[in-house]
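Internal ticket #5521
Category: modeling
Description: The requester needs a full-assembly model to guide mutagenesis choices. All entity lines are attached below as received. Residue total reported by intake: 743.
Assigned to: D.W.
Attached entities:
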Amino acid sequence: MNWQFFLEVLAGGLLAGVMYALVALGFVLIYKASGVFNFAQGAMVFFAALTFVSLVERGMNFWIALLATLAVMIGLGIAIERAVLRPLVNQPPITLFMATIGLTFVLEGLSQLIWGSQPHGLELGIPDEPMQWLSESANINISQFDLFAALVAGILVAVLALFFQKTRIGRALRAVADDHQAALAVGIPLRQIWAIVWAVAGFVALVAGLMWGARNGVQYALTFIALKALPVLILGGFESVAGAIVGGLIIGASEKLAEVYLGPFVGGGLESWFPYVLALLFLLVRPEGLFGEKHIDRV
Amino acid sequence: MLKRTRQMALGALAGAAMLALASGPSFAQNEQFIPANGYWVGPYAPGGSGFFGGVIDYFQMLNTRDGGINGVKLTWEKCETEYNNARGVECYERSKKKGPTGATVVHPLSTGITYSLIEKGTADKIPLISMGYGRTDAADGRVFPYVFPLITTYWSQNTAKIKFIGTKEGGMDKLKGKKIVNIYHDSAYGKETIPVLDVQAKKYGFTVTHIAVPHPGNEQQAQWLQVRQIKPDWVILRGWGVMNPTALKAAARAGFPRNKIVGVWWSGAEEDVIPAGDAAKGYIAAGFNLPGTNFPVMQEILKQVYKNGKGEMEDDSRIGSIYHTRGVVAGIITAEAIRTAQGKYGKKPITGEQMRWGIENLNINDARLKQLGAVGLMQALKVSCMDHEGGGAVKFLQWNGKKWNVITDWIASDQSIVRPMIEQSAAAYAKEKGITPRDCSKES
């Protein structure tokens, strides 16, 4: 066994997992605050990245375009609360989930209607090439961009953890997630909370969209990255920010190792389904995920 | 009040819907209907919108400049397939009886949809043109009378690709001992060239490793780490959609030189390289049509169509792009086949069955290419009952970061490898389906 190569695959997998975790974080936020699995998270990532890159291509300054896109995503969050969620307060979670499926198609269509369906390149100024010194000294290729993505994810997790644990709004969010009616009864403004959390999810979608857009280009296929986040969520738990990261690392590393070492025996291409098998097996042992909250309901 | 307003709105909506249904598209008797069953939304929209943009622009140019073909106006109607087999079949069913003579010909623009329509098209006597895609063994017209994988099939292209690599290595004998990795989209389309590559590996003595990339291909780290371990001399990229820029980016991360990657033509459009940025510089791709607006036919389209504000491409920068000129080539072939059929059946709208004859007797030689203003845009084409491919040659293009540069002349395919494989595969299909192959000597 070539241990050097094994280490390279492992490191590459862990860093790919960070990219999955960036998407998974958006799901966690919405689920934590409303108990809703937001099917539209992938579409939000696409919408955010496409809006940003289209503004930049029309001559807008990078930072102004970033702020403008952030404003658009916040506006989108508020609009979703007004038009979709507000009429569905106290409805069963499955109703809210179905609403997010509808939202996915609306966002995908709207993005292409406004900005067109052409793919775009996105440069963030971080080279996506192997670091020369590491490559020469240890013959291991690690991209600078992957490390940058890991740093961004780390900062995002720290900020979100502080937000949920240390701020009033964060605590209110957790209360809303536990019980809509009880939260309303104690005076928590549910609508305001939902608008905030969807706006924050929009911000996370923007960050994920920029990272994935810089990696593969900004195009419709960005919506598919939501599929990469699902096994991460099952493994890490739908309610845990830390779980999204740990789940991402486990999924990323295991799928790469499986593809490289098991792939040749089964004809390859197992990267797409192996994480789901892993997540399913995990479900059997720990249904709430690694960091998910265990719910005990009175009968 | 609110209830009344809502009722009024619903009434107006229902009225409008009924009106739309009642009127529908109407067709005059002297029109030739060609369905535009393609994709303008979704992940593959750049390919679909560019291709059908070119087809429609060419038809529009003929209508504006010549009043159609011999006085028969060309008409079309778009139907969104979303590159989905079920939608493709639905669009086919919806369009097959439109126009005074039904659908003349269908361009499915998807290998999957082509496969789904082979038996239907044959039964309905509507030809399918799968130009540069679809079922390779359909090049045997004895077994597939209504299917035309025109210009170059995947297998032909693949032999031209190995010839190109051989030239770069200093001769075909220099391929012995070389290592080639075939990175392919894990689908029927992606797997199509595995057999022909294996045959060539045996013939020329190189080793080939096939590495699958699961759909949609937006994560390829593991595959390119394997490439890094194998250390191949060349990589063949058989991608589609997001898989292409992702592969180029991943190759850069793995430190593999892009000028040693040779892509199929579905990996060789501007849309495949622009999202990859600098990582795409130096990358080589095969092509059976060339980009640009300098060809006389493209100038005619600009003059007759775009100057009158009738152009299909909303973004001017896409006029003359690879997908757009590919559509123009498809438009030329379709129009020339109609013209050929009219030569036999009269200057009036032709049926699908007559169109089949027109395609099968198509002969676009160098002189005709010059008249059409398409010299260099496409290769000469001669179709027959035996050979539904008609061309087989490929040019290679290299991306310089801004545009594609043509780096070879037309490289002929190796039919000594391809044709026996086509005939063997077509014979197996005929046996499976109980088809008695036509006797081409009796076709007139």
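Resolution: model delivered.
Comment from assignee: The longest helix of chain B spans residues 322-345.
Ticket closed.
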